[in-house]
Each structure stands twice: as C-alpha cells, then as structure tokens.
Automatic annotation (TrEMBL):
Domain N-acetyltransferase: 1-137
Protein origin, superkingdom: Bacteria
CDD domains: NAT_SF (cd04301)
KW Transferase (keyword) present: yes
One Gene Ontology molecular-function label: acyltransferase activity, transferring groups other than amino-acyl groups
Entry keyword annotation includes Disulfide bond: no
Protein name in UniProt: Putative GCN5-related N-acetyltransferase
Pfam families: Acetyltransf_1
Keywords linked to the UniProt accession: Transferase
Length: 137
C-alpha cells in the first residue's frame, strides 16, 4: 500500500480499508487477484509493484469468455525508476493473465507510463473513459 500512496500522491482514511481489501483478495482461493513485486535492492521493502485482477463480465465478440483483466496499480518508488522494474512486474502480470486464458486486459495509463504499456502491446481505446461519482445524489 505504500507504493499505492506514491502512485496516488497522498494517503488518508482509504489506506487501512485498502490494505484489508488487498489482503483478502490476495488470499482468496479463486485466485482472481495477483501482485508482482521487485524488492528494494538496498534493503527491506518494495521498489516496484503491480496489482491486477480478473473480472467476470458479459461476453462479447472481442471478449468471448467474459473474463477480463484489469491492471489496478503499477507503482515504482521514485528512487528506483528507469531500471525496468515496472516493466518486469507488468510482464509477469501479463504472463499470469495469459496462463489463465484472459484475452482482454484493460488499464488506465498516466502520461508517464503510457510508453511502457504501449511497448508491452497495450493500445489506446477508441471509447473515452467516463465516471459517475456518488450516484443518487
């Protein structure tokens, strides 16, 4: 979760619930969430990590199983960037998805990360991302 605060740029009351959710999902026997990490080379802790999940959705022509991957978090501690750690974590996650027969993987890229994702085969989608906050207000 420390690297998630690096990615988001802040911490707060979401941190403890996030830790609990991640622990529960990573220990779920259905194996629908995976995390791949690179340890800090100079001491304890993580230098980089990626977290991805498999979601079950309605199937479609490009997604015949309805199982879709989603990359939730890619983060590298600033002092360890530009060493290929995020790429290694992403490659492991992509392999995990492929091993499970996932044919579509989505993510939301930052401008800084877009080049890495494109080099791994990700493409921009034609449809814009949209979000509704607080439905019912």
């Amino acid at each position: 979760m420390r690297l998630r605060t690096v990615m988001i740029g802040s911490s707060g009351p979401w941190l403890e619930p996030g830790r609990e959710i991640l622990e529960r999902q990573l220990t779920d026997p259905r194996d629908l969430v995976a995390a791949f990490v690179v340890d800090r080379p100079d001491g304890p802790g993580l230098a980089s990590c990626v977290v991805g999940a498999i979601d079950e959705r309605l199937p479609g022509p490009r997604d015949p199983t309805g199982l879709r991957g989603y990359v939730y978090n890619v983060a590298t501690d600033p002092q360890y960037r530009r060493r290929g750690y995020s790429r290694a974590c992403m490659a492991a996650l992509i392999h995990w998805y492929a091993h499970r027969g996932i044919t579509v993987v989505d993510l939301r890229a930052t401008p800084d990360g877009e080049g890495v994702y494109a080099s791994l085969g990700f493409e921009r989608t034609k449809d814009p991302a949209m979000r509704l906050l607080n439905p019912g207000r």
